[in-house]
Amino acid sequence: MTIFDENLILETINMIKLHNFDIRTVTLAVSLRDCLSENTNVVCDKIKFKLDKYASNLVKYANDIENDYSIPIVNKRISVTPISLVGEACKDMNYIKIAKTLDECAENLGIDFIGGYSALVEKGCTKGDIALINSIPEALASTEKLCSSVNVASSKAGINMHAVLKMSEIIKKSAELTADKDGLGAAKLVVFCNSVSDNPFMAGAYCGYGEAECALNIGVSGPGVVRAAISDLDKNADLGILANKIKQTAYKITATGELIGRKLAKKLSIPFGVVDLSLAPTPKIGDSVAQIFQAMGLEDAGAHGTTAALAMLNDAVKKGGIMASSYVGGLSGAFIPVSEDAGMIDAVSKSHLTFDKLEAMTCVCSVGLDMIAIPGDTPSSTIAGIIADEMAIGMINKKTTAVRLIPAPDKKVGDKIVFGGLLGEAPVMQISNLSSFGFVQRGGRIPAPIHSLNN
Predict the structure, then answer these.
(1) For residue range 269-282, what is the model confidence (pLDDT) as tens digits?
(2) 28-193, which class in CATH?
(3) How much is the pLDDT for 277?
(4) Which of 53, 97, 303, 399 is the most exposed place for a label (fewest CB within 10 A)?
(5) HEC profile for the chain?
(6) pTM of the full structure
(7) What letters, b where the CB count within 10 A reaches 16 and e where it falls short, cover 340-376?
(8) Interval 188-234: pLDDT, tens
């Protein structure tokens, strides 16, 4: 059991009002493996019963904890077993009905998002995987709170290029079916390499096959706190001192997050899972990863040195977090979403931060190309090429990478999409006009690298 330092906790609480520190999400992971049936109606009834059993008090108890400790808990979420597995036994494989059931449960329980409309197809697809993937655009267009993810690559299996090409088409269709909302469907869909089964953050959260019956995972965020800590240092402090300051700050944030997570898990009478310390920004001024780079001494995100600064930041966050808790998990590190980060939005708008620079930064961040708007007329083969590049970075570097692109319907470079809330807004970015078609249409599987043979 972690020994909590009350002085550190109190110091962290003092950062809440000034620097936007918060518990970004409490995510209840629920296994639906016992909800299988040949009858879709029976599956849906079992899902309703099980989610009500475990999550009926999630929002109430989270609000109680928030009031008791005066620490904001921004989102309350649920993640479930990948639905491709749950629906595959049904004779009719009516995944849309299951999707709407999940959304209805989320609405009734007061949940902000529910994740797990997912498939894991890095080595190939079953009939259930194919049916779920084909249903994603309609599922996301006909629901409000549902989030979807598909894992198409891993360092062990390589890259399933058939799935990559298929997902490029699914992303385009998801955006088109929600054109009246600037392509919101695509913002709730993420394509992964090396996806993580205990991730509490959307849109990629799901309850993995090896996870417990139920567990509470918590996602803590505090880019504003880290920026303030760096700003307090002497401007001439060397980078070793700066890295130590980030580690110390991450330690305090993680300890606070685990305290809140364990208190809530105890009230719910379920096991505590992991604390995911991820510097997940918001559109609020001062709650930006890009502004951390500026505090480090860079003129703006995108300047030469940005990738090095991000690498140091990501590493220091992980080191600080792992010293504070034995149960750090999820993605943990620094996120670089464009639409959700006021500093990133500004840097893109000024052309300081380009698509290619963002891709380079994904080699060292905790996830990948995230919440990036591209022209709506981008060919699906180009999107497939972007996905393949990002999957290759993850596969070779044995890290999680992801792509969450919004091909904004009827929008061109320089236009803007607006979602509001945590999803924010983003300028449509310029990408290469060169064709990827001849490469991606080959299909097949890009083999795993030689270091995959490490057993």
Answers:
(1) 999 999 988 888 87
(2) alpha beta
(3) 86
(4) 53
(5) CCCCCHHHHHHHHHHHHHHCCEEEEEEEEECCHHHCCCCHHHHHHHHHHHHHHHHCCHHHHHHHHHHHHCCCEEEEEEEECCHHHHHCCCCCCCHHHHHHHHHHHHHHHCCCEEEEEEEECCCCCCHHHHHHHHHHHHHHHCCCCEEEEEEEEECCCEEEHHHHHHHHHHHHHHHHCCHHHCCHHHHCEEEEECCCCCCCCCCCCCCCCCCCCEEEEEEEECHHHHHHHHHCCCCCCCHHHHHHHHHHHHHHHHHHHHHHHHHHHHHHCCCEEEEEEEECCCCCCCCCHHHHHHHHCCCCCCCCCHHHHHHHHHHHHHHHHHHHCCCECCCCEECCCCCCCHHHHHHHHCCCCCHHHHHHHCCCCCCCEEEEEEECCCCHHHHHHHHHHHHHHHHHHCCCEEEEEEEECCCCCCCEEEEEHHHEEEECCCCCCCCCHHHHCCCCEECCCHHHCCC
(6) 0.92
(7) bbbbbbbbbeeebbebebbbebbbbbbbbbbbbbbbb
(8) 999 999 999 999 999 999 999 889 999 999 988 888 888 888 988 98
Q: Which residues of the chain have pLDDT under 50?
A: 1, 18
Residue with tokens 């899972």: 273
Query: Residue 16: its pLDDT value, please?
Result: 60
Token duo for residue 32: 């639906």
Amino acid 76: pLDDT: 94
* Residue 141 CA: distances (Å) to CA of 106, 146, 260: 16, 9, 34
| Beta carbons within 8 Å of 35's beta carbon, 6+ residues apart | 43, 46, 47, 50, 86
Structure tokens at 236: 């001439």
Query: Which amino acid type is present at position 243?
Result: A
Alpha-carbon span 58 to 62, nearest angstrom: 6
